[in-house]
Write a structure and sequence with these properties.
Number of helices: 2
Shape: rod-shaped
Strand content: under 5%
Order of helices and strands: HH
Number of strands: 0
Helix content: over 70%
Structural class: mainly alpha
Radius of gyration: 20 Å
Length: 44
């Protein structure tokens, strides 16, 4: 057996972590887009 399989640091589901990473990164880029849209709207 692999030695890393015996000493697992986290037993959480990887899909939850991947989903949270996607949501956080999507939220960051959406925030940047919204700020850019507001700046463009105000500059008119």
């Amino acid at each position: 057996m692999n030695e890393f399989e015996q000493n697992v640091q986290s037993k959480r589901n990887d899909a939850i972590d991947a989903g949270m990473g996607f949501v956080v990164s999507f939220g960051f880029f959406a925030l940047v887009f919204i700020i850019a849209a507001v700046v463009e709207f105000v500059a008119r």
